[in-house]
Structure formats: C-alpha cells, structure tokens
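seq:
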Amino acid sequence: MDTFTLNNGIDIPALGLGVFQTPPDETTAAVVSALQAGYRHIDTAAAYANERGVGDAIAASGLDRSEVFIETKIWISDYGYDQTLHSFTKSAGKLGVDQIDLLILHQALPTAFEQTIGAYRALEQLLADGKVRAIGVSNFMVEHLTRLLDETGVVPSVNQIEVHPYFQQREVQAYGAEHGILTQAWSPIGGITSYRDSERRSFDEPVILAIGEQYGKSAAQVMLRWHIQEGRQVIPKSTRPERIAENIDVFDFKLTDDELAQIDALETGVRGGPVPEAVTLAAFGRDIPDA
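struct:
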C-alpha cells in the first residue's frame, strides 16, 4: 500500500474504505472484507450511524490497533467547542478506541461559521491532548479554508471533498496544495453519478473504459489510479467483497501523462452533493446519540 504523508508527519494509506450509506448491519462485514483484502484505512462518520460496526470489525480482525488508520467526522449538530469535545467521546466510544487517527469536521456551516470555528478549536485541543493524531475538514471551499486558517492555529491535514472525473474542484485542490492540505476524494469513482439522476455515469465513460482496456483494468480501477497519481487520497465504498478487493488492486500499473490528461478533460463542473451554502442546521441537523 502506498501512503501519503500528512502535514504533521503522520502517514495515511493512499486508499481506504468508505462506509457512507452502508447500513449498520452491513458495515461490520464490509470492513472485515476490506481488512482481509489489505485495506488499513477506514473512513466513517458520526452521521453515518455505523461507527460501532466499524469498531466491531477492527476489534475482531486480530490486527493490532496501530495497524488500522481510523478516520471519522463530527456532524454539524455537534459544532461548538464543548459539543465537539463531547462528540469525540461519543465517536471514540462507538469505535471502541481511546485515540482516533484522523478527526475532521463533516461540513462547513456558512450561516453559523462561529460554531464551525469553535468546533475546529476543539479539534485543536484534542490534538494537543493526544486524543487524535491529526485533524481536518470536509466539504470546505476556499472561502471557508481561508477564514479557518485566519482564525485558528493548526492547518488542517486534509480536506475531504467530492472529486471524480466529472467534478474535480481544481481551485479547492490548488488552495489545499498551496497550504499543505491533502485532498481526500469522496465519491472518487463517481458513484454519486449512478445513484443520483445524472445524465452520464462515470462507469460507462468511453474514455475511461478505453484506458482500462490497455491495462486489463476496470473503470473504477482506472479512476482510482488517476486520483492517486495526481496526489489525492481516495476512499471508495462498496459492501461487495469482490468489488472491495478490486478497488484496492490499483498499485500494479501506472497511467501515462496523456491518459491522466484525458481524464482531466472530462470535467463538467456539475456537483453531485449539496452546495455548501445549503448546509444549515435547519436543513441537515440531526441528533447524534451517545455511545
């Protein structure tokens, strides 16, 4: 497994398993399959309601805790300094761990950014206390990152954003690279183009399929390789053992500069997830139960 080095010197696997929309009763089996296939990074979130399943799978794996990189996210309902400190306790309890490798804010709250700042300051305290090894954000745009850097002391290690061939967010990626923030790609193989009403599916893209034929690789494998070669960490999701194994089998080939450019050229500018301004407590707030 290749790795990326975060801005505080911590290594993160280049590829991990995401469990967004994985039902709690299926999460443990999916994570077990992933760990057996060689994954060593699992990405979950308080709002996914499946942290306990992730923790159960890791505990049952027989792997030493230090061998598995655990990432989870604070939901907007728990923003604010004290609330976020408590949210760490809730997530750690469900995961069954004392320390979380990477803890990030799930969204910016543009209409209540002071709560976002308070939440991030709590992450800084958790980092200082050794309860987390790295901190970061998710779905932050340039204006959110700029204000965060102005008002806090620790540069985020990652910004997890929607990135796939049809929506690449190059401005956000460039700002992150300039400040030492690793881009993590969610929906890296364009799964969101399959379950949302999209005119095109990345899995059917002729350019990607043609490149895959050159290497005997699937469209998903080509897209994952594209991300990794361009310096993005990826967290594909699946609950099917054969697909989980397929997605990690991307370290035995290399795309050419021309092939990377062909995939870059597929940009449509169409976002699949919610626009950041639409993320409000009124629209997306939900209770996150205790462990």
